[in-house]
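Sanity check

After download, print the first record. It should look like this:
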Amino acid sequence: MGPLAGIKVIDMTTVLMGPYATQMLGDYGADVVKVEPPEGDITRQVGPFRHPGMGPVYLNTNRSKRAICLDLKQPAGREVVLRLLRDADVLVYNVRPQAMARLNLGYDVVAKINPRLIYAGVFGFGQDGPYAAKPAYDDLIQGGAGLAHLMAIGGDGTPRYVPNALVDRIVGLTAVGAICASLVHRDRTGRGQRLDIPMFETMTGFVMGDHMGGLTFEPPLDKGGYARHLSRDRRPYQTADGHICVIVYNDKQWEAFFAASGRTDLRDDPRFRTFAGRAANIDLVYAELARIFLTRTTAEWTELLAKADIPVMPMHTLESVLQDPHLVATDFFPVVEHPTEGPIRSMRVSATWSETTAEPPRPAPRMNEHGEAILRELGFSSDDIAAMIRDGVTTASPAAKE
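Expected structure tokens:
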């Protein structure tokens, strides 16, 4: 049943940030109703696919949900949403608040219908600054929060984005925590509230928590930046036949490394002997490690370091990680049967609970897969539903089209 069993979430989000957050709420047991526009979530079109509209990005961010298509620009579509919200616990949206106001679904309107509702917006910027109405995407926020600059410092000098929708996923995770905290507050007080989770502020805090450095102080002690993170040789180390991921961090690990690698000569070097010495000379230290790791194969280093209890991991590819022995043993990538897409590789919920097991209750839905069933739950008759389909407020269910 999951720890959020009994919680009803109306998901008015698309693309990645919002759907990732609501998928997690669904995995945790909430009843998530995904409200899509008639053309569907745009990530349905990101391939490769077995069938159009069911691409991998969509499949991996929309499980554990029921789906209904609605044209919210039509009064009848908006009326369906209002009925959904009457007994909902959470509404999550990721358009700008100004767009919700234009749909006449702003918090001031919705709270009158359901004062216990958690009204959660995940969007670009806080609403009390000059960027309030600006559009935002993951790439823009990576740049604005300093990540592209940091990639340039730690790389070849060229600013780059992290090759992952890092912002969307971090802000989505932040939203899950904020929503759950708001549900606790509501249980204590009986009152819902509006909740804004802005991308720019969230990611600026995330990045600068590591890299504020001397800018923490007034006046500043330096120009900021965490030197270890920015060292050119902080990367997977090249070995005699591949690469390996290693971090030798505390004094105990370094003592073990001196012995395991045969480099006991470094023990007496003040630049290597203490944590403070290494921190002050981190570029030199990492460069020397890079030279040392070239002297043995990946397998030799892995065995040697594991015996010495020094943190070591393989450098996986997107394919090899599927065969990682730990992930295989924990069945992290189970192959499940999708009703229309056949066997697909899923991913387990990473958190575990001793009392309330969280398991994805259903695979990602087809467009409007549950539309007619949801409308019937809300009290709409067969004639009402037929009229909505005729007027383009919703679409026919997939079964009716086949």
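If your output differs, re-run the checksum step. Summary of this record's structure: The chain has a mean pLDDT of 96.
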